[in-house]
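Hi team,

Filling in the usual template for the complex we talked about on Friday. All components are listed, including any nucleic acid strands or ligand strings, so the model treats them as one assembly.

SUBMITTER: L.P.
PURPOSE: interface mapping
COMPONENTS: two
RESIDUES: 231
SEQUENCES:
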Amino acid sequence: MNTDTATIFLKILYFAQLEEERGCFEETIEYPFPASPLEVYQHLREQHQLQLSPKELRVAINDCFSSWETPLKSHDTLAFLPPVAGG
Amino acid sequence: MDFSVNKPFLQFRLSEEPVDVMQEMQFLQNPSCGALVTFTGWVRMENEGKQVNSLQYRAYPALAVKEGETLLQEVWESCHPAGISCVHRTGHLQVGDLAVWIGVAAPHRAEAFAACQQVIDQLKQRVPIWKKEFYPGLSSEWIH
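RESULT (copied from the run log):
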């Protein structure tokens, strides 16, 4: 990570298929600021070969459904949610 | 319990343990209600042509409960029953196990049937709970 650039720390939560593909349920990452959930997911998708596209997912910030464009703050918890299948 | 059409009892929860249906029904017992409509979802031995041995339910608890509570509030605003209780299992379940239970108590049956249908339909679409199916002799799969 380039230390000349402002960065934020994000807690990432992975569920279901994403959790298996990533190999963990949660992790903390450092990411350049400013950032959106879409940018972070695209980075993680490429880094970890995650199969699901953003169009197939929903995103939550700090336990609330959110949009892919919401500006992220340091120490936000960002969750990527595959299509649900309860019931 | 002290609840009514104007001051409803709304409860959504996740459970890692088997659900005690009689206890769930007791939450909803109320002298103002003449109807209790329930929906029980069981783990089926087959899905889309494949034999299913067991299921795993995974939830995002903080958001699932929040979204479930929002859903029950919306259904109450739409149908005005007196009480809605919904409990969804998490963890590993076997064929025949209870996966989800919904109970709706209301003065009359029409609003109870309508509300119960709305809760299960919406739950399946929007509450962050995921299901993995385990098959004999095949790799397990997350269901989308």
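MY TAKE: Chain B has a mean pLDDT of 97. The interface with chain A takes residues 41, 57-60, 62-64, 66-67, 88, 99-100, 120, 123-132, 142-144 of chain B (CB under 8 Å).

Thanks, L.
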